[in-house]
Structure formats: structure tokens, C-alpha cells
Amino acid sequence: xxxxxxxxxxxxxxxxxxxxxxxxxxxxxxxxxxxxxxxxxxxxxxxxxxxxxxxxxxxxxxxxxxxxxxxxxxxxxxxxxxxxxxxxxxxxxxxxxxxxxxxxxxxxxxxxxxxxxxxxxxxxxxxxxxxxxxxxxxxxxxxxxxxxxxxxxxxxxxxxxxxxxxxxxxxxxxxxxxxxxxxxxxxxxxxxxxxxxxxxxxxxxxxxxxxxxxxxxxxxxxxxxx
Length: 226
Fold this sequence. Notes:
mainly alpha
């Protein structure tokens, strides 16, 4: 092959590779997740107490931090759940276009917004507006993640070997979290404790390993080993 024909081939391949390579997209996404998770802990500050009162008041002040610590833990895990979902999606999404880039940016905006409602519910755990703001943010985040998968699967951006049954399953699985968060908003009008307990249910549901997840990773291992 001549140098001229080789140069022409490389010239035509570069745009194709840039369009198909999700490396920068996933690196940027991971960076946003990392920064957002770090910001969560900034709301938990060591109590400032006069030295002569530390022995009598420190325990009480630490107890007052429990809502903030709890909201931090739940939000940390929730962000971890969304990171795992995003990561697993992009193991199948092999290409992107202009719309996918902006859908992903919208998703990251939702992720970056999580520290605010987390701080709100940590400061005012017994106010309905805090629960609604927290759950509402996570509803929108889940819906946008669903849009990413819908767009990728309807615009030929995923791996051609992806099982159609798996595609349908992911659509159903992604809906669970935003539906439960939406339910918590409705429940908050009647009982705030139950509404907040739904947040814990979502966390537990997604953390507990499931058989389909193990089978999914086994299939990916076999595909990458080929």
C-alpha cells in the first residue's frame, strides 16, 4: 500500500474513531461524580464549642449531626448507584452523537445538583419541602438516565450484539428508582418518616446483588475475552 493511500485511509478513519470513542465522555462523567461525592461531606462540620463546655455539650452536638450524617451516607450510596448504572450503560453504548453528548451533560447536571437537596434534608429533616426537593432531584436524575438508554437503543449507539431482552430489562430496571422516589413525594403528604424510609428501600434494593447482574457480567467477560 502506498503512503498516499495510507494517508487517505487514516484521514477517513479519524473522524469515525472520534465519533465512536466514548473515552472523553466517560472520563468527564467520572470526574463529575468524584467531585460531587466529595462535596457531600463538606456539609458535615465539627461542632464549635467553648472549651469549658466541651465535656458537657459535645455529645449533644454530635447527636444533632445525625440527620446530616445519615443524609450524607444515603446520598453517597445513591450517587454510587447512579455511577454504577451509568458505567454499566456505557459498557454497551459504543458510539455517541450530538444529542447523546447533551443528554449526558444534562444527567451530570442532575448529579452535580444532589449536594444541595442533601444539605437541605440534612438541615431540615422534618420539613416536607426538604423531602420533596431531595426526591424530586432524584426523580429527574433517574428520568434523564432512562432517556440516555432509550436514545442509545433507538439510535443504534449500542453494541450490535446486545441482547434485545437485556435492553428491555434495563428499561424496566432504570424506572424503579424514579418511580419509588416519586412515590416518596406522594407519601410525604401523609407521613414524612415513611417517605424517607423509601429512600433507604431504594438503596437496599440496588445494593443487594441479583442473579441477572452476575449473569450480565459473565456475558461481558466472555465477550471481552473473545
